[in-house]
Amino acid sequence: MTRYYLSYRCLICLPVLLCLFFYTGPAVAETGEYQVKAAMIYNMIRFMDWPEEALPASAPQFVVCVVGKGGLGSAVDGLQGKQVKGKTVFVRPIPLSGGISGCQVLILSDQDKSITASLLERTRSSMVLTVADSAGFARLGGTVGFVLQNGKVRFEINQTSAQRHRIRVSAQLLKLAQIVQEGP
């Protein structure tokens, strides 16, 4: 991509992401916490880059896979058909034991820690962005974890996980995130 295109993309998308990031508690409650998180996921994707082999230029779809039937997974269904990175978003539910081949994003919705740890181990060498809203997810090895702080939706990014999955996160997005390290 050209430097001009990247700068233009940042000027357009960053204000939207900033607005979502600084939502207040009552606004989150009114619009739905999970809808806010889904919108944040959609905007975060714009500030991340996948390797060519994980997201070929010829691929017509950007695949978001969802494990579980929790609120986040349901809200992410609203991304179906939207455009991102020149591709149409396709939301695909997968069973707990299902394969993640072809997924660019893996949403873990309503999973307990033992299941989360197992899924993270299965994705360890995959080029997939892992996202959840369970406490401590990013510290467990996930890439993006949502947290509520003082009634506001915030997100944590585990840069080690992003690097392991070969996903490049823009500096603008990292400035908005709480950076966490893996550990207990």
Question: Which key phrases capture this entry?
Answer:
184 residues, alpha/beta, 8-stranded mixed sheet, 8 helices, 23% strand
Describe this structure in words.
By secondary structure, this protein is α/β, with parallel strands linked by helices. An 8-stranded mixed sheet has the order 3-4-2-5-6-7-8-10. The chain has 8 helices and 10 strands. The protein has helices at residues 3-21, 25-31, 33-45, 71-76, 113-122, 137-140, 159-164, 171-176; strands at 48-49, 61-67, 83-84, 87-93, 105-108, 129-132, 144-149, 152-157, 168-169, 178-179. Residues 1-6 and 16-31 have low confidence and may be disordered.
Tell me briefly what this model is.
With 184 residues, this protein is of the alpha/beta class. It has helices spanning 3-21, 25-31, 33-45, 71-76, 113-122, 137-140, 159-164, 171-176, and strands spanning 48-49, 61-67, 83-84, 87-93, 105-108, 129-132, 144-149, 152-157, 168-169, 178-179.
Rg is: 15 Å
Overall pLDDT level: 84
The percentage of residues in β strands lies in 15-25%
Helix share, percent: 25-40%
Q: Kindly report the oligomeric state of this protein.
A: single chain
Tell me, what's the shape? globular
Computed structural class: alpha/beta
> How many beta strands in the DSSP annotation?
10
Whole-Å distance between the termini?
39 Å
Largest sheet: 8 strands, mixed
Order of helices and strands: HHHEEHEEEHEHEEHEHE
